[in-house]
């Protein structure tokens, strides 16, 4: 991801929505969360214990930002703001153990919306391949398959293709979505959509994969007897509707999200994920701590090279960045000098960020971490401490830094929900993250299921582009069509080089699990269920919990709205420290495993039986639209 200086104040807009009876201005293309933040509303609900909540992950993972819009509960960070929207905030709990508050069929909206853009024929659809995710990996996979004549359905939760990396800026801007590489990818996608080879469906949440026997003859891409995958999704909009797509091959390219470690006060409004801070800046033009965003200085902390573009982007947008605090040390890179030397472009990129930070007089400290956040209703400051060789805070080194925003993240963790549930094997990377196992062709251990990008191990956009294309070519080859071996060999070499570099970054920036030992018992571990660290310690010490899943069953850790996405890594690490058994990839995967990967309205489930007969898509049939 890259920083972007295209932030704009929401006050320049002539569009308005209504929040708790008051008119709030926003720019076209902003989310409801961005509109609230631009109006200096950092919190808009409370938990069952009365703790304030606002935006945290910024990309729909954590559910902290729930609001009611036109009578429907939505995640404010994902929901586009529209003129006339009626938004209600307030002290609503998100305890998943409460009785259902909505009828099977959702209540009518107070304000009608335009429906989600849906291209192609009525679903269910039968095609040659489905791609889940329209980020760098998903785009190259879809384009590669369509280029060779396959019919492809591309499903993505976003309103536009590009994912988190190629995020579109409000009012334009100079972000990655304006890069020549993305313009080429998008032009290819548009061409395939117009030709009918790609059926692109934005604002579609895939909630599960199911391996089934084909109910009808398959297209020419696969023998009729081949088993197929059924991809279940929800088409978002004022009236969410069920979607089913059947194909013998599926490429999962769902990306990743910020990896977090708990510390006292990390659930305060004003503490946001580093990726969430950049998503707001790039996608909605809201710079936390800058023009058009909530006031106060900004601290950026955690570990990994991603902190640099986040801090640089905020500073360029006018925010006062009080400091960047990196848990790792610069000398940690010296052990991997040979591998690093093979990627000279990355050094130039890092040097550019360093120059930008120096120009804006932003301090950069290695071997430091934020160990506490302070405030009542919102963040007012943080405590920073030096870390020892085990990445534990050094007593006596603490100092307070006043700020209104903390952007924090310890790298990224892959989004594996769909893959884990169907039984794909996973592994643990050098830095502790769980990733799906794939072979040289990006095939998982489940036949017909491929994966590319961050799901195979966090490695950045360049690696995702190579893996996505390889996955697409592998699906093409599986149909018996010829594939250019020289092209495949070049992609493989590039992938191997970039993966080696990513493994170095993973090793240099591991999850600093040592500091979990010193956390106060009252520190919140699971944000959704508000389970403290002490409860998990008690479960292991007194109740016999010997693994993360047992701790989950005894404490409800990971059973809330986010289903363990936010706390799984920290919980697995904490239990591992307490039991003396370092967690492997299966521990975190088991903790976060769920049969339904995304929220599904009950009305959508009830209407599955009403779906029309399966439609067979072929490359000669136009899908009815272009990528937006």
TrEMBL record:
Domain FAD/NAD(P)-binding: 128-461
Single GO molecular function: iron-sulfur cluster binding
Compositional bias (Basic and acidic residues): 98-116
Disordered, as annotated region: 88-120
Lineage top rank: taxon: Bacteria
Keyword Oxidoreductase: yes
Keyword Oxidoreductase: yes
Coiled-coil stretches noted in the UniProt entry, renumbered to this chain: none
UniProtKB keywords: Oxidoreductase
BFD-like [2Fe-2S]-binding domain: residues covered: 525-575
One Pfam family linked to the record: Fer2_BFD
InterPro entries: 2Fe-2S-bd_N (IPR042204), 2Fe-2S_ferredoxin-like_sf (IPR036010), BFD-like_2Fe2S-bd_dom (IPR007419), BFD-like_2Fe2S-bd_dom_sf (IPR041854), FAD/NAD-bd_sf (IPR036188), FAD/NAD-binding_dom (IPR023753), Metab_Enz_Cyan_OpOx_G3PDH (IPR051691)
Designated name of the protein: NADPH-dependent 2,4-dienoyl-CoA reductase/sulfur reductase-like enzyme
Originating species: Actinopolymorpha cephalotaxi
């Amino acid at each position: 991801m890259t920083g972007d200086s295209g932030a704009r104040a929401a006050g320049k807009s002539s569009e308005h929505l209504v929040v708790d009876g008051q008119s709030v201005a926003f720019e076209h293309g902003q989310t409801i969360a961005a509109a609230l933040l631009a109006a200096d509303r950092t919190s808009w609900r409370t938990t069952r214990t009365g703790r304030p909540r606002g935006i945290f992950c910024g990309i729909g993972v954590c559910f902290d930002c729930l609001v009611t819009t036109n009578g429907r509960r939505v995640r404010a960070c994902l929901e586009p703001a529209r003129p006339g929207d009626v938004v209600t905030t307030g002290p609503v709990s998100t305890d998943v153990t409460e009785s259902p508050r909505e009828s099977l069929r959702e209540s009518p909206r107070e304000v009608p919306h335009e429906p989600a853009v849906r291209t192609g024929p009525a679903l269910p659809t039968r095609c040659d391949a489905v791609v889940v995710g329209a980020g760098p990996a998903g785009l190259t996979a879809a384009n590669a398959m369509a280029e060779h004549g396959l019919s492809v359905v591309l499903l993505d939760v976003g309103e536009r293709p590009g994912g988190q990396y190629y995020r579109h800026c409000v009012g334009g801007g100079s972000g990655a979505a304006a890069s020549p590489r993305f313009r080429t990818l998008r032009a290819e996608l548009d061409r395939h959509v117009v030709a009918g080879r790609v059926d692109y469906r934005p604002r579609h949440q895939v909630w599960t994969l199911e391996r089934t026997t084909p109910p009808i003859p398959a297209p020419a891409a696969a023998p009729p007897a081949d088993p197929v995958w059924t991809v279940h999704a929800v088409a978002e909009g004022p009236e969410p509707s069920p979607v089913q797509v059947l194909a013998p091959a599926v490429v999962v390219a769902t990306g990743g999200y910020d990896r977090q470690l708990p510390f006292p006060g990390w659930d305060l409004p004003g503490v946001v994920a580093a990726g969430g801070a950049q998503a707001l800046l790039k996608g909605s033009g809201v710079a936390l701590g800058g023009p058009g965003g909530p006031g106060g200085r900004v601290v950026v902390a955690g570990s990994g090279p991603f902190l640099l573009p986040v801090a640089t982007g905020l500073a360029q947008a006018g925010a006062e960045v009080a400091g960047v605090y990196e848990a790792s040390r610069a000398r940690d890179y010296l052990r991997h000098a040979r591998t690093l030397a093979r990627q000279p472009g990355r050094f130039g990129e890092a040097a550019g960020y360093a120059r930008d930070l120096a120009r804006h007089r932003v301090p950069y400290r290695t071997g430091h971490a934020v160990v506490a956040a302070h405030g009542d209703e919102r963040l007012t400051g943080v405590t920073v401490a030096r870390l020892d060789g085990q990445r534990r805070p050094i007593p006596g080194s603490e100092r307070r830094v006043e700020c209104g925003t903390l952007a924090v993240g310890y790298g990224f963790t892959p989004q594996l929900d769909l893959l884990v549930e169907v039984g794909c094997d996973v592994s643990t990377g050098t830095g502790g993250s769980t990733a799906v196992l794939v072979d040289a062709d990006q095939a998982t251990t489940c036949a017909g299921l491929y994966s590319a990008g961050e799901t195979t191990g966090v490695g950045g956009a360049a690696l995702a582009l190579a893996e996505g294309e390889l996955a697409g070519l592998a699906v093409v080859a599986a149909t018996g069509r010829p594939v250019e071996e020289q092209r495949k060999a070049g992609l493989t070499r590039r992938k191997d080089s970039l993966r080696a570099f990513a493994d170095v970054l993973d090793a240099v920036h591991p999850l600093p699990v040592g500091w979990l030992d010193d956390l106060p018992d009252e520190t919140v571990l699971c944000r959704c269920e508000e389970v403290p660290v002490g409860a998990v310690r008690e479960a292991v010490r007194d109740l016999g919990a010997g693994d993360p899943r047992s701790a989950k069953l005894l404490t409800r850790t990971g059973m809330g709205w986010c289903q363990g996405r936010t706390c799984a890594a920290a919980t697995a690490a904490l239990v591992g420290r307490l039991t003396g058994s370092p967690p492997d990839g299966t521990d975190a995967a088991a903790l976060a495993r769920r049969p339904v990967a995304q929220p599904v309205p009950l009305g959508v489930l009830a209407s599955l039986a009403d779906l029309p007969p399966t439609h067979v898509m072929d490359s000669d049939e136009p899908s009815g639209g272009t990528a937006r």
